[in-house]
Amino acid sequence: MAKKEEFVKDIANIDEDFAKWYTDIVRKADLADYADTKGCIAIKPYGYAIWENIQNYADKLFKETGVKNVYFPILIPDSLLQKEKDHVEGFAPEVAYVTEAGGEKLDEKLCIRPTSETMFSTLYAKWLKSWRDLPYVYNQWCNVLRWEKETRPFLRSREFLWQEGHTIHETEKEAKERTIQMLEIYTKVVEELLAIPVLRGRKTEKEKFAGADETYTIETLTRDGRALQSGTSHYFGQNFTKPFEVKFQNREGKEEYAYQTSWGISTRLIGAVIMGHGDERGLKLPPKVAPIQVRIIPIAMHKEGVLEKAEELKKSLEKDFRIEVDSRDQVSPGFKFNDCELKGIPVRIEIGPRDIENGECILVRRDTFEKVVVKLDELNTKLKEMLDDIQQNMFNMCKKRLEEKTQIATNMDEFTKKINENQGYIKAMWCGNVECENKIKELTGAHSRCIPFEQEKLSDKCVCCGKEARYMVVWGRQY
Amino acid sequence: MAKKEEFVKDIANIDEDFAKWYTDIVRKADLADYADTKGCIAIKPYGYAIWENIQNYADKLFKETGVKNVYFPILIPDSLLQKEKDHVEGFAPEVAYVTEAGGEKLDEKLCIRPTSETMFSTLYAKWLKSWRDLPYVYNQWCNVLRWEKETRPFLRSREFLWQEGHTIHETEKEAKERTIQMLEIYTKVVEELLAIPVLRGRKTEKEKFAGADETYTIETLTRDGRALQSGTSHYFGQNFTKPFEVKFQNREGKEEYAYQTSWGISTRLIGAVIMGHGDERGLKLPPKVAPIQVRIIPIAMHKEGVLEKAEELKKSLEKDFRIEVDSRDQVSPGFKFNDCELKGIPVRIEIGPRDIENGECILVRRDTFEKVVVKLDELNTKLKEMLDDIQQNMFNMCKKRLEEKTQIATNMDEFTKKINENQGYIKAMWCGNVECENKIKELTGAHSRCIPFEQEKLSDKCVCCGKEARYMVVWGRQY
């Protein structure tokens, strides 16, 4: 036990300094590290394997709905970026530019994509002829750069990995349906794979994507009650297709501009998992996304047959589970238990000479720390059940916290008091004016998260100005 | 038939203008298109799906040997690039630099990775402590930029996609084994997946990677007898680990520099497939890598039950094959046949009212154009056999051409005559001096491809200077 306490000291106390706890987990659970390039991170194998699991899960869902993957250039001529006014205003301050290449100064500087609406629109304009060609439902998994001033691993990094889907359609209706369809897929990824419940709705005018008509969002809540925008889907109408001349001959033989969407999720989701599930002992990974679902720790490893039995178990289970044996001989079992917890491995199996004699082993759950003795011949079934149960329980735990941290406010005193005493979401009515939105931000530090799909009428009046309310909005402080 | 001839006119004659034929195929088979960014291409769904199949196949083989995927920053501080002399000399002329970002001029310009030895070495130096940590066997799938003057889709593009593996090891022996092991995996990818036989060997001093001790290569031969470097694996010794201080405490408790390798394959392989297999009718894809293995073309589609039967067949086969129905109603079956051939789909199925009546359909092979009538209840089995046979036959056809285009020369007159009359590989003895290598290049346009693993003694004398020969080298003109 002495060893354990000492070990846990290496990470900051989660309730005292959540921000430090977070970066400690990122580095000590071996997810990522800072690189020499300021504001960028190096994603290490354990962190990248989480991303691969997210990619595989999402990509399969995308393809089932007809999404096709492509890869378009990272460098965008500056003149293309300038074509849509709102878009360039929103992104220009964060853009990184290539100005020299091949030993020469470039004639026109090239922007490194912060997002690719402009590149996709340019190419779509080149290819699109007839309504028969539509829809284009393309996506790319790639890196993007946004020159953020303050960075935090996974949550806000100057370079990050994401997927960006860009579609064009014959009709407004079809484009709007695609916008919502992708939000539903994102909901599935976050709730079913990552075991985090989401809040869904539409962004306000102030918070929507630069150039969009409508932005839809899924929001998650961190353990310390802050909001994380975790995926967005945008409906553009013809905002880009007009300046970029993405037009087609419609069924009536007339020229028409296409209707456009885009949508993305990123490595930020790894941050959502860390902040959504982690606890005082470290990371806690939902089984479906965990790179290692089960780790076997041999006890009294020097005794004859122990390591062999552990390896034999692994062999018999590796077809059904992502499993490994911790056979390091320079550290104690206690150290290995801690390491399992720090890394958030859903289940550890302890097996020693006496267990082998009895034909059993001990399973320890990461979510509840519950220990169960299991007969070796039932191990496969029991493990399966336990992992399913952990996945569900982790979702439930998050859901419970979400409910505890969602409060209602009908005036600004209440708003401020509640968000300060129990940081989380505040549901409140809003008149629809950006002035009130700005004032709420000023007074409480909370941004509007979204206008949820499921509207409730909490009162008739705007929480801020007292005038007639138009929407119920969920507010929260954010990372 | 008139229609077909007209259609084929759209692509250049393969024997008259191979270079134009190549870019025609790239664009008309919908693999990729030029983008507004000079020297860069947009990889379209059909081209990207080939890359995904290559990625999946290779990534699985990598992981079976313990490779772990990571993602490190694309931007490398210029000072890091400068640390290894040969490396920077080799790459500096092709580097693109970010000099402005977030609205400000940067203090130190940032290089966009042309390759990541310097980034990996920096991070490895930070993490490595003891021999117990070794080996690091990391890989990333990513984009890189090299500012080439002349570009050609897939073969040489300013931005391209690849994987770059970077490993460090405790001993020279282990590192050298990894270098060769990865070359063997690349051989498998190209020979078994892409059905193209490779030439394998070591690059000469002149042709090796900037900073490497030894570079190993797999080379493929195009239909017009040019060589394509298709994958390389490098052994670095301690060339990077010394300047980057990648050191560890060895088993004797002493400080030692690690031994390093790197290895990569890229979207250039798509070019190798086009140039290796294509013919006068278009692209020809090996079944294992083809995004669409089988396309069903309904004949007399307007007749009752035809389209339904085609869809039914597709449903019954889609579990085992990548298959689709061409149900376009605005084009003729003849157009669809041509389109199938242009896109290189290995097998097309023709099915019309009479076939349905007889409980059969017609299979047409892309490699031999052979037509076979098959009973519908045997379709699954016959298709499987046919696809396997096509895969093997395509490899054999390439192998035969490779043999026909590999010639021996014992003096320069013979060398020049043979390479001009039947462009391809020339096997010739070499003294080992770079002067002869340069002179051969000057006289014939041929670079040394490699010093093959399988050496033959063709004569005692260097083909160029007549002095004592050290190696048999394979030479060839390249893309």
Q: Which SSEs are present, and which pair or pack?
A:
The structure is a homodimer of 479-residue chains.
Chain A: H1 2-8, H2 18-28, E1 32-34, E2 41-43, H3 45-64, E3 68-69, E4 75-77, H4 78-81, H5 85-91, E5 96-101, E6 104-112, H6 117-127, E7 136-145, E8 159-169, H7 172-193, E9 199-202, E10 214-221, E11 227-237, E12 247-249, E13 255-257, E14 259-266, H8 268-277, E15 294-298, H9 306-317, E16 323-325, H10 333-342, E17 347-351, H11 353-358, E18 360-365, E19 371-375, H12 379-404, E20 406-408, H13 412-421, E21 425-430, H14 434-444, E22 447-452, E23 471-476
Parallel strand pairs in A: 3-7, 15-16, 15-17, 20-21
Antiparallel strand pairs in A: 1-2, 4-6, 5-6, 7-8, 8-14, 9-10, 9-22, 10-11, 11-14, 12-13, 17-18, 18-19, 21-23, 22-23
Helix pairs in contact in A: 1-10, 3-7
Describe what is shown at a glance.
2 copies of one chain form a homodimer. The first copy, chain A, contains 14 helices and 23 strands.
